[in-house]
Design a protein that fits this description.
The protein has 173 residues and is an alpha+beta fold. The protein folds into two domains: 32 residues; 129 residues, Alpha-D-Glucose-1,6-Bisphosphate, Chain A, domain 4. It is 39% helix and 27% strand. It has three helices and seven strands. Strands 1, 2, 3, 4, 5, 6 and 7 form a seven-stranded antiparallel beta sheet that branches. β2 and β3 form a beta hairpin. The longest helix is centred in the first third of the chain and has 30 residues. 12% of the residues are buried.
């Protein structure tokens, strides 16, 4: 009798631990908050070891979805038109954006050398303005940097795709 009682207590304890353990783990994960990335007004930069024509084409392809205001190859500047909050790029950690926000992206390509080889530095700035109400003046606010990182990533991917297409074309000839 005592063995059965002991066995049932052990079984009950094992069952209780096996049920509560995942609940505690999930509960801790639910209450753990991810901090948003630090906000900055500095441009994000990336150096690519390619020629100017390749980086310019990749940058234009990466920015194809944006309304362009300036596309000057001689000055090596791309600038979007002002983008209102309705068409705003939505960061994954924010569920709702401020209605008075607008921004523009400015991309500059700077030619240089990296270890004796031709290289291009791409600098992406996001200028965000916030207008609290109809009567207030626009104020510049810092960017999260996420859209700039995404754009630099897309430029890098375009370069990789272009290189792969060139290799495939050489193989077929």
């Amino acid at each position: 009798m005592q063995k059965e009682s002991m066995r049932s207590h052990t079984l009950l304890a094992t069952l209780l631990i096996s049920i509560s353990s995942p609940l505690l783990t999930v509960g801790c994960a639910v209450f753990q908050s991810t901090a948003p990335p630090p906000e900055t007004m500095d441009p994000l930069e990336q150096v690519y070891p390619v020629g100017f024509d390749a980086i310019w084409l990749a940058t234009q392809k990466a920015m194809a979805a944006y309304p362009m205001r300036v596309n000057n190859m001689d000055l090596r500047v791309l600038e979007t038109d002002t983008i209102k909050s309705e068409r705003y790029w939505n960061p994954p950690h924010l569920s709702q954006l401020k209605t008075g926000d607008e921004y523009k992206l400015i991309v500059r390509v700077i030619e240089g050398e990296l270890d004796g080889n031709l290289a291009q530095k791409v600098s992406v700035s996001k200028v965000v303005h916030r207008k609290k109400d109809f009567f207030s003046v626009k104020q510049q606010v810092p960017s999260t940097g996420l859209e700039e990182k995404a754009l630099l990533y897309r430029i890098g991917r375009e370069l990789i795709i272009e290189k792969a297409l060139e290799r495939a074309q050489k193989k077929s000839q």
